[in-house]
Amino acid sequence: MPADERPLLKICNLDVRLNAKPVLKHINLSICNGQITSIVGPNGAGKTTLMKAVAGVLRPVSGAITFRGIPIHTLPVHAIVRCGLVYVPEGMGVFPDMSVRENLEIGAYCARAETDARMDFVSGIFPVLADKRSRLAKTLSGGQKRMLVIGRALMSGARLLLLDDPFLGLAPRDVRRLCDTLKQIRRNGITLFLAGQHVRRILQVATRAFLIEDGRITLSGSGQQLLGHPHLRRCLYGIATQSPGALLAEAGFPQPAGSGLDPRPLFPQSERD
């Protein structure tokens, strides 16, 4: 396969244990350049563990992870960051008693000479951070702190951003704004890998999506395909696997024209990306 056609990130037969307990089991997935890839699943299914394994925070017991064709599953975190892969954990992890600008500058520790250019780039993505660059980070709103955390990751020169539960704790207005921002980041050539509990939002922005259950990938397809899939609704919400139209018909109501789920098939569990 030519180099320019290789996946940006490829995970092959990944197994991860925590306290000797299997958490990820034979995970296979790939992410192509320019995608927004999302992974959803029940609590404890392995979403955060997968993010941490890719970022080098956790070591797999078997399997391989390659980024831009380079094996990274044995590299330390700082070396993975230098490759252009940056993990943003859940929460508002800012340095509260430092200014917004100082928080952002920390993100550029790998390439100090490019700080000003990257600061301009982040300011274009998050104009509010430029307006508040002299403010202490602890004075920002929740949505602004999330912008700051993502902006700090962008300061590293990331080619792939791993965002764990990026919508956690945000007001609905901030969630909508962040969705738009993620699409803008993608338009600027940065690939995104999202995980979290805000299933509808995470799948709505996804060009590619996966469902993980008990440490295994069980469904994959587009974000819209997973969003309408009966197995996902049953797995995450306990909703019956029948389509809305079938449920209405069963209850004696006429089915409106055009109702029902998209019948296009998803990739099966046995797929190996």
Structural overview:
- By secondary structure, the chain is α/β, with parallel strands linked by helices.
- The chain has one domain: P-loop containing nucleotide triphosphate hydrolases (Rossmann fold, 3-Layer(aba) Sandwich).
- Helix content is 35%, strand content 22%.
- The chain contains 11 helices and 10 strands.
- It has helices at 47-55, 77-83, 100-107, 115-125, 127-131, 142-154, 172-187, 199-204, 223-227, 230-237, 244-250; strands at residues 9-18, 21-31, 36-40, 62-67, 70-71, 85-88, 160-164, 191-195, 208-213, 216-221.
- A 6-stranded mixed sheet has the order 6-7-8-3-9-10, with helices on both faces. It has a 4-stranded antiparallel sheet with strand order 2-1-4-5, with helices on one face.
- α3 runs parallel beside α6.
- It is globular, with a radius of gyration of 20 Å.
- The protein starts with 8 loop residues before the first strand and ends in a 23-residue tail after the last helix.
What characteristics describe this protein?
single chain, 273 residues, alpha/beta, Rossmann fold, six-stranded mixed beta sheet, four-stranded antiparallel beta sheet, 11 helices, 10 strands, globular, disordered C terminus
Helix content: 25-40%
Spatial order of the strands in the main sheet? 6-7-8-3-9-10
Using only CA atoms, what is the Rg? 20 Å
Total number of beta strands: 10
**Number of helices, counting only DSSP H or I runs of 4 residues or more:** 11
- What's the name of the CATH homologous superfamily? P-loop containing nucleotide triphosphate hydrolases
Query: Main β-sheet, in a few words?
Result: 6 strands, mixed
Indicate the proportion of strand residues.
Answer: 15-25%
- The low-confidence runs, each spanning 5 or more residues with pLDDT under 50, are 246-273
Order of helices and strands: EEEHEEHEHHHHEHEHEEHHH
Report how far the terminal alpha carbons are from each other: 14 Å
